[in-house]
Design the sequence.
């Protein structure tokens, strides 16, 4: 069996193509297996020519070395030890050369009879030797230039070595040549070669080729990405020879970890960090870990620089509410992701699974495509992404069940976290999330936000001054009245500061708020004050756990006040001289009832009434939504009176006091405390200016009494001439709500008689207390009943217009939708026609004339205006039946059983308007009561809508009506206050003052459309937070805790309580109430109204009570 001939290891083993050379000879010992044992220069270093008489080695046939050693190459290149002695002296002037390879002697006799085939084989071998010699010369051409002294420096090789055509050269062959050259150059291993190449301590400045080659590689100037330095390292890392296996399983790396990252059981063991062996792959992993630690350390130091805003050191300016409320978690995430990408990537990789990452990439691609952006088109390192992807796939391929347990499957968000409303105070959203929307694959980026929180907590553990997020969470926990132990747990976890630190921070914030109050009080005597004062009493029950003679349960009373910055102040509007002159001249004496009547704009009232009817129809009939814009123009353009410019109000609370403002002396003390004690206003600076003092009816009445009692004092300040009392609207609106219930709720008549109480029982709201009249339950009762009446009125108009009547099995809202749907009889109804229907409803049910017509005194009745009458079927029962049977009665739906007897009602302390005896004329007393209810409820709802929309002019158009109605309904206190206000507006206030008061009659805490509030309602919200934070029995309203830590910070506390959940994608649980449609309630009332023909006039229908016309009665008062 033949064997391959031995091969030389280096290119220099191949003899040159020329027979003689001046280069030093080499000695190569060849073994039978083709490996060289030694190599080196034999003939010296200097190229000295040798004598031709130098003895040459004997030629020994290659086949003589053993069996199987045959072939053309073995015959021409025997594996001998051949030497060439050192060159001898020159004997002539002609150059004499020595042979580099042995010259064959005369062959022995045994080989003289060689065949022609052998001769041909020798010729082929000689040709191969010639080719090899030529290749060696070409390859080594200029390779030593610049190395040996007195030779050219060489430089960049312009001629590239080319492998000969027709010869198959494998990559392994090329590597062999390179390895031989490396070893001959003095580098025994590849490691020693690379160590020398990349030794940073060695400076290569002798040969430009060396410097530029290394620099070009390290600076990634290679054209191919596959030749990138990182790609080479990645090849080393993933090479099969870099990993060790035991029983087919890869050996895990041995990490040399910092001591702080060791398990608790081994943290103090000194033998843990002893170096241990690793395979190349595992060693690279360990090396990468240490480089990552170095990078994380660098990024951490970067994040803790003051310019990034995560630190609050003692030498830094004090934290303010403006700074806290402007802090954005999303902006912090942006800062961390930009300045600490390794930290952010490390933690987000843990938080985000494969599906979420792929979906985010797909969503980003869609967004870029829609926006016309091509994205990043630069050449990257795809092998890195492939490596990450393959590692993720390999990990997940080991067990799909584990992936699913980690949340691989997409989950729906909780309802509580899906709502996002406008909150401009807490920062902006990055562009990507604005484009994608809140329901992105990261669940509204909540995972990234959670990672941001974790990073901020870790920064807090590293540096105790990285306090911004712990301060916010601590204040939020305090605003939620969280238990102190819970706050302690949050503090231990790094999520919050301690409870004592929270109180200290509140005092710091309170000090800043107090300083801001003093700045507001430091107004110029030329421009005058630019603020108003709002105050109200606040009460809190303090219960004694163990009552004794000296310690018992009691109600703590105090006063809370607020300072609000004014806008739109005209020059000279608050000068006191014009007002004092008008008062001294007694101009209000010209006020008459006729003047008040003439001040009412009935056309405006009718116009907004029609608009409210249309709004109700659009709210419950989806087919009419196309008319929404036209309906809103009725309020925003056609009948708007004085719409306030949208703004965010400047609101600042003051210290709480123990003063009882319900007395005249107490109200004077409150003003003294606010003006001098907290605003630090010099009394003499108010001698020519007015300050708006706002509050409910009681507070304003006390201010008026102060001005009356102090009229003869010596100075304008002590006479309180600077105080301009202005009654506020929420308590006024609430009192009008109470007046409606007093007029239409009659406990003595029982709940089975048609009316407001009857409908409350029908809606299963029988627990409502009309005496207490809680605002929001009462508001919903009035709104739902009003909507049901307006919808049933539309049903009657549609039946009269189309002649189509739907059966009792069709709900009220469904039947109305059938009329206006695409297949309905009124689907082509225009807005003008719809507005005509609304005008009919207003004339029939919402004005005073409708109630007068229902009394039956007008003969004949105008059926074209008020609709046809309804005539009941003849009654065949006995004539001695109880008269009350003809009245609408309440019975359970679908049942003929009588309702249970009514409980005995408690006596009301409210004054009940007169109840005239039953009128047996031809009128319809049920219709009269209904028209009065619809009219006064419409006035109430217009007050609510105009306030929310910020149209103070529309508000006062209703107030003009209430000047009489409060007197007729028995609310004489508010009737008197509205008369005072009428005197101010009509006779005593200048135009500039009237305009400025209008501009500042409402407040908008958020700066959003539809979020205007009455000033006293804002104070009621602040009082609520004060009561919530009144969390200690030892606290008093004058105490340092409630006065400074709480009282001065109420606006900030309420904002952070409302807006902080929005940082994490949760709905704001604040002052905005959820809007729901009470369809079932409306339909139940609709069934009752249709069955009893409540909205159809019936001659002679009576009731045991008749609601008075409070407006007419007020005119007579």
Sequence:
């Amino acid at each position: 069996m033949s064997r391959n001939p031995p091969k030389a290891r280096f290119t220099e083993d191949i003899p040159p193509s020329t027979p003689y050379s001046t280069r030093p000879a080499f000695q190569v010992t060849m073994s039978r297996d083709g490996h060289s044992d030694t190599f080196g220069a034999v003939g010296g270093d200097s190229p000295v020519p040798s004598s031709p008489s130098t003895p040459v080695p004997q030629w020994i046939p290659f086949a003589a070395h053993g069996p199987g050693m045959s072939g053309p190459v073995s015959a021409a290149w025997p594996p001998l030890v051949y030497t060439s002695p050192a060159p001898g002296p020159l004997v002539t002037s002609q150059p004499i050369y020595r042979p580099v390879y042995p010259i064959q002697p005369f062959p022995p006799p045994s080989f003289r009879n060689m065949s022609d085939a052998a001769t041909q084989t020798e010729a082929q071998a000689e040709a191969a030797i010639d080719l090899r010699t030529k290749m060696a010369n070409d390859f080594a051409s200029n390779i030593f230039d610049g190395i040996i002294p007195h030779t050219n420096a060489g430089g960049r090789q312009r001629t590239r070595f080319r492998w000969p055509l027709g010869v198959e050269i494998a990559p392994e062959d090329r590597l062999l040549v390179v390895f031989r050259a490396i070893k001959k150059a003095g580098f025994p291993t590849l490691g020693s070669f690379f160590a020398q190449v990349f030794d940073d301590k060695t400076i290569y400045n002798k040969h430009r080729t060396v410097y530029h080659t290394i620099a070009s590689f390290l600076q990634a100037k290679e054209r191919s990405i596959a030749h990138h330095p990182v790609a080479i390292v990645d090849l080393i890392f993933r090479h099969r020879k870099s990993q060790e296996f035991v029983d087919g399983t890869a050996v895990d790396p041995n990490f040399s970890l910092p001591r702080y990252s060791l398990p608790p059981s081994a943290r103090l063991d000194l033998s843990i960090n002893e170096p241990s062996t690793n395979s190349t792959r595992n060693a690279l992993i360990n090396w990468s870990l240490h480089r990552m630690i170095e990078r994380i350390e660098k990024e951490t130091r970067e994040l803790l620089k003051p310019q990034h805003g995560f630190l609050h050191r003692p030498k830094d300016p004090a934290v303010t509410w403006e700074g806290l409320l402007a802090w954005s978690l999303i902006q912090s995430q942006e800062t961390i992701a930009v300045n600490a990408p390794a930290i952010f990537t490390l933690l987000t990789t843990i938080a985000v699974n494969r599906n979420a990452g792929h979906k985010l990439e797909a969503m980003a691609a869609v967004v870029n495509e829609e926006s016309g952006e091509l994205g990043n088109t630069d050449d990257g390192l795809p092998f890195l992404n492939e490596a990450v992807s393959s590692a993720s796939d390999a990990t997940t391929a080991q067990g799909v069940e584990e992936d699913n347990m980690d949340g691989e499957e997409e989950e729906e968000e909780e309802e509580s976290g899906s709502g996002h409303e406008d909150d401009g105070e807490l920062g902006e959203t990055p562009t990507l999330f604005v484009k994608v929307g809140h329901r992105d694959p990261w669940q509204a980026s909540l995972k990234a936000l959670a990672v941001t929180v974790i990073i901020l907590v870790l920064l807090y553990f590293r540096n105790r001054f990285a306090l911004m997020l712990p301060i916010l969470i601590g204040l939020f926990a305090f605003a939620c009245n969280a238990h102190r132990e819970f706050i302690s747990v949050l503090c231990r976890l790094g999520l919050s500061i301690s409870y004592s630190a929270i109180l200290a921070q509140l005092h710091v914030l309170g000090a800043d708020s107090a300083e801001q109050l003093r700045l507001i009080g430091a107004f110029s005597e030329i421009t005058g004050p630019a603020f108003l004062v709002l105050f109200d009493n606040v009460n809190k029950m303090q219960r004694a756990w163990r009552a004794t003679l000296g310690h018992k349960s009691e109600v703590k009373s105090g006063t809370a006040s607020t300072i609000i910055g004014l806008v739109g102040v005209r020059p000279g509007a608050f000068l006191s001289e014009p007002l004092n002159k008008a008062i001294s001249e007694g101009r209000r004496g010209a006020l008459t009832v006729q003047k008040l009547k003439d001040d009412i704009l009935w056309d405006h009232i009718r116009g907004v009434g029609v608009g409210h009817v249309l709004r109700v129809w659009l709210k419950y009939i989806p087919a009419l939504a196309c008319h929404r814009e036209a309906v809103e123009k009725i309020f925003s353009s056609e009948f708007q009176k004085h719409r306030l410019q949208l703004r965010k109000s400047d609101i600042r609370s003051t210290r709480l006091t123990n003063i009882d403002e319900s007395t005249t002396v107490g109200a004077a003390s409150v003003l003294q405390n606010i003006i001098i004690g907290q605003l630090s206003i010099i009394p003499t600076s108010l001698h020519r200016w007015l300050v708006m003092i706002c509050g409910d009816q009681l507070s304003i009445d006390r201010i008026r009494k102060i001005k009356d009692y102090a009229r003869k004092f010596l100075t304008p300040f002590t006479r309180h001439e600077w105080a301009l009392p202005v009654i506020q609207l929420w308590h006024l609106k609430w009192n009008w709500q109470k007046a409606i219930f007093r007029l239409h709720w009659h406990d003595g008549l029982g709940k089975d008689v048609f009316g407001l109480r009857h409908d409350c029982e029908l809606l299963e709201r029988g627990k409502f207390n009309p005496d207490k009249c809680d605002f929001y339950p009462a508001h919903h009762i009035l709104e739902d009943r009003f909507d049901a009446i307006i919808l049933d009125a539309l049903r009657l108009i549609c039946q009269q217009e189309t002649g189509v009547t739907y059966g009792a099995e069709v709900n009220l809202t469904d039947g109305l939708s059938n009329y206006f749907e695409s297949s309905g009889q009124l689907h082509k109804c225009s807005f003008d026609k719809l507005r005509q229907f609304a005008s009919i409803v207003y004339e029939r049910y919402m004005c005073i004339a409708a109630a007068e017509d229902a009394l039956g005194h007008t003969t004949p009745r105008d059926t074209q205006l008020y609709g046809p009458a309804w005539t009941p079927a003849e009654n065949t029962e006995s004539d001695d039946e109880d008269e009350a049977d003809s009245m609408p009665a309440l019975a359970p739906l679908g049942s003929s059983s009588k309702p249970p007897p009514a409980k005995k009602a408690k006596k009301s302390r409210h004054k009940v308007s007169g109840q005239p005896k039953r009128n047996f004329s031809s009128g319809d007393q049920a219709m009269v009561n209904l028209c009065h209810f619809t009219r006064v409820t419409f006035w109430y709802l217009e007050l609510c809508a105009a306030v929310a929309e910020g149209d103070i002019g529309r508000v006062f158009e209703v107030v003009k009506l209430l000047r009489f109605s409060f007197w007729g309904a028995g609310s004489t206190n508010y009737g008197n206050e509205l008369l005072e206000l009428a005197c101010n507006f009509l006779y005593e206030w200048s135009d500039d003052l009237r305009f400025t008061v209008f501009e500042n009659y409402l407040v908008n805490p958020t700066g959003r459309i539809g979020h205007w509030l009455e000033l006293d309602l804002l104070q009621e919200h602040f009082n609520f937070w004060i009561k919530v934070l009144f969390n200690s029995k030892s606290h008093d309203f004058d105490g340092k805790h409630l006065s400074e830590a709480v009282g001065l910070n109420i606006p900030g506390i309420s904002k952070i309580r409302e807006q902080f959940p929005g940082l994490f994608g949760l709905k704001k649980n604040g002052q905005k109430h959820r809007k729901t449609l009470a369809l079932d309630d409306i339909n139940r009332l609709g069934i009752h109204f249709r069955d009893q023909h409540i909205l159809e006039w019936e001659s002679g229908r009576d009731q045991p009570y008749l609601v008075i016309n409070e407006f007419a009665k007020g005119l007579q008062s």
